[in-house]
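User: My collaborator sent over this chain with a note saying "see what the structure looks like." That's all I know about it. Can you take a look?
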Amino acid sequence: MSSAPVPSGLRRARAAATADPRIASFDYASAAELFPTRSRRPGRNRIGYRRFARADEAVRFAMEDVPPELLAGACLEVDEQRYDGDDIRRLYESERYPLRRPARG
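Assistant: Without extra context I'll predict from the sequence alone. Here is the result:
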């Protein structure tokens, strides 16, 4: 892990993520299902239902590969709990998120 300074906005987001008990106790190693919303334009940005062996991979996919306009209506289901697009973002920004995030440029 890098020792580079963390921007204050990201620090606030990470603090908010740990304040939500569902986010703070989230099990990133559990199996997950991702249900992205449908694009309003047929044939564009079509990403269907996906199942993941680990929730951390589902969160990574949602944040790094799903177009932002589809993330807003996405639903992640883990251990019979549902998480919306904002929850997915908090899970990704959490200090507990186990995967490496791409470098911001």
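A starting point for your reply to your collaborator: The first helix runs from residue 8 to 19.
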